[in-house]
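Support case: fe (ii) ion complex. Customer-provided input:
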Amino acid sequence: MTDGQEPPEAEDATQSGSATLPLRPPCDRLQCNKSSVCSRSYFVVVMVFFHVYIINVIALLFYVHYSSGQDDASRSGGAPPGGHQRSESRRPPSKPDFQRDVSLTRIEGIRVGHVQKVSLVPGKVHEMRTLSLKPLLFEIPGFLSEDECRVVMQLAQLKGLMESQLMVQDGQEELAKELNLSPEEIFNLLDINQDGQLQLQEILTHSRVRDGIWLTPENLREIYAGLKADKDGNGLLSLEEFRLLSNDAFQRFLMQRGVKRSQLVRNSRHTWLYQGKGSHQVLQDIKTRVTRLTRLPPHLVDLSEPLQVVRYEEGGHYHAHHDSGPVYPETACTHTRLAANTSTPFETSCRYITVLFYLNSVDGGGETAFPVADNRTYDEVSLIQNDVDLLDTRRNCDKSNLRVKPSKGTAVFWYNYLSDGRGWVGEQDEYALHGGCVVTNGIKWVANKWINIDPDYQRQARYQQLVSQQPEEEDDEGLPESTETSSPSIHQDL
Ligand code: OGA
Ligand code: CA
Ligand code: FE2
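Agent response - structure generated as follows:
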């Protein structure tokens, strides 16, 4: 993992340096005769090699300088050598019409456990530790002060929190009726691996996405037994078995039995706190600090979702999920919908970065789990295997690759998307899967700051242009960082 991170040129230099040294003593010209290895031509060859070597070293230095050039401008004095960030190297746009002069800074993780110093508030240095490289995930203790944590929780209570997930409503079968789907068609839709059988995973995943009910494999077996659905008892539903069930048989069964909050994907309450002009100073300070932390253009942070404050009671949880969806050509981002030319059936939040703040230390449980962090490979199918469901944070947090224990004031942050290699948002990072483990003792408070960026650069640019034209829009930029990016062109100001 770390092998690729070390600069190879350093090692090469010492090796080739020592290789040239033993050649020097025989080159005492006075003792050499014409036929010896110390002839003039030999000397010329050595000198040519020596010069080529020097030129190579200089070229390498230039390369390193230019590929990490941008962050030098924004680097604040506290960063140690090697603990700096590197922005994406700028390459000429691949298409002539795709003019971008913006490169998103991506902080380097270096290796797990690496600590870099960051300057976020005047007169204070924070330490930022790399927790994983897949996803690129960092932890910053003391990001918020005790007072700030208290204020955020109080403001959230003052505003009032709502259930994060509403209890299921039926009536979904109407959609199927409207589409006039046959049982075969529905079966084919659910049979993800197209093997002509419905495995437990296929039904579980479907139920979670469709109505937010988190069935466990045992629940499903109970339902099969209750409905006598799995006639041959092999744990799979064949098309014949499926045909005998009515369209909404599962839902009806669940409704009759009653669904508890603990059986939902998420069991918490939350609210949103606006962080713009006129909001509480603490909220504005947090936004400024997040901008400094992520080193993204302030506009992007300003135009992102408000701060989400979440409260979990004892027994609360949030099963593993992605904060943002995958990118398909037809996917629109919620925040740039305004600027989308066409309406699309798919919409996602496009949360490039998640900054998660722990507002209190939790007495028991409540860790944030990353089930597949730094896994060698990602295999969606193996996430749910027979009776072990790695996505289930009520049962299987102990099997997660990484767990972060909530500690008051600590922030963790990670990238939900990879880079596209050209300084913009790339593919969704599947390793960014995470969830909140069940709180076994006490209450848990967290806040989320999501930074929304559209993977479609043009759409993000259009959106910002539109927003900047709105007379009511806060053109505040009281942020000190804004001076370095201020420009009349929205493209430069992204
Ligand atoms: C979230 C989330 C994790 C946690 O709110 O999206 O993933 O530990 N929370 O509460
Ligand atoms: Ca199947
Ligand atoms: Fe999340």
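The two ends are 33 Å apart (CA to CA).

Case will auto-close in a few days if no follow-up is received.
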